[in-house]
Design goal:
alpha+beta, cGAS/DncV-like nucleotidyltransferase C-terminal helical domain-containing protein, 7-stranded mixed sheet, globular, Beta Polymerase, domain 2, antiviral defense, transferase, two-stranded antiparallel ribbon, CD_NTase_C, nucleotide-binding, Poly(a)-polymerase, middle domain
């Protein structure tokens, strides 16, 4: 075996630990099945977190939003609040977390990054002395990371600005509206359509009978458990898998591991074909996922290595039963 799956299962169970109940929240199949540790790790990693915890996470984020709304209103600064993050596509892999609160400036001017900086400063001033967070971190100068306790929950805050992009001007639908975020340290910006990205991932997953999100969760789990940090976002992982044709991603519960071959082939293609990687577009079809960014090949290579190690270990285990990942395996 390439990995110690007793340790990896402990990691997985730790991410799903409910402090109040003093137990990890996993699927019934996790307790009922007699599969080996490597099979349980792979299969449970694909499962959706109990939806009730998404509601609890939103409740935590909503309390933060309400506190900030009062603070911004008191200063007369007009902002809007929206949400994004893996919790919006049910691809989060922790019991509490995976949510990002976007704070958007309503009015535009010639120096929008100044508005973003002012929003970030106000958030830090409002929340740093609140006494309810164990962590308030803005070291990246892009996102503010909060860590609450009881329950322990990470909430990210993204200061940004609205965009009046052509599609939004034409349709007047917020799903078509873009936003612009800034990294004030690197002096870079990113324009994208988060709400259309989210909607299209959700729609494609329905067409794929859950296959898309299962594979996103699996790769996100491998990323989280890797010894060598893998610098890829949920958006980047989701976009790589979103590019796979619907028919190839259709999930059959009687063959729960059969999509691994398709995912492996896609990771190979993104790595080997530079032109394909650099022109790969987001679900919204309005943004290049990696473009020519130099970090992408190395980070994708690290993710592929983790994936290959898992598939190798699965096949080694299944070989004892004269099976492969394409055999009938239900969970």
């Amino acid at each position: 075996m390439n990995k110690d799956y007793s340790v990896l299962l402990e990691n997985l169970l730790g991410r799903r630990y409910d402090e109040a109940l003093r137990e990890s929240i996993v699927s019934d199949a996790f307790h009922e099945s007699e599969y080996s540790e490597v099979l349980k790790y792979a299969l449970e990693a694909m499962e959706e977190i109990d939806p009730s915890y998404a509601y609890k996470t939103y409740h935590i984020a909503k309390r933060i939003q309400e506190r900030l709304e009062k603070s911004f209103d008191a200063t007369g600064v007009g902002v809007d609040f929206r949400y994004q993050g893996p919790i919006q596509t049910e691809t989060h892999i922790v019991l509490y977390g995976g949510v990002e609160l976007i704070i958007l400036a309503r009015t535009l001017d010639k120096k929008p990054w100044i508005k973003v900086e002012n929003i970030a400063t106000h958030v830090m001033q409002t929340l740093s002395g609140a006494g309810v967070f164990t962590k308030v971190d803005y070291s990246t100068k892009e996102r503010i990371i909060l860590q609450s306790s009881k329950p322990s929950c990470e909430v990210k805050i993204l200061p940004a600005i609205w965009l009046d992009n052509p599609d939004f001007i034409s349709t007047k639908r917020e799903i078509d509206r873009g936003i612009c975020e800034y990294n004030l340290d690197k002096k870079t910006r990113r324009k994208y359509l988060p709400f259309l990205n989210i909607a299209r991932v959700n729609a494609k997953d329905q067409r794929c009978n859950g296959g898309l999100k299962k594979m996103i969760r699996l790769l996100s789990t491998l990323q989280r458990d890797a010894n060598d940090p893998i610098n890829l976002s949920n958006y980047e992982i989701s976009s790589v898998l979103y590019a796979i044709p619907d028919k190839q991603l259709k999930f059959n519960p009687e063959y729960s591991l059969s999509l691994l071959g398709v995912v492996g082939a896609q990771l190979n293609r993104v790595l080997a074909d530079r032109s394909y990687r650099e022109t790969l577009i987001s679900p919204s079809e309005k943004e290049r996922v990696f473009g020519t960014r130099p970090h992408a090949p190395l980070e994708l290579e690290k993710l592929k290595a983790e994936f290959d190690a898992l598939v190798s270990d699965l096949n080694e285990e299944l070989k004892q039963e004269k099976k492969t990942v394409y055999s009938d395996i239900t969970y």
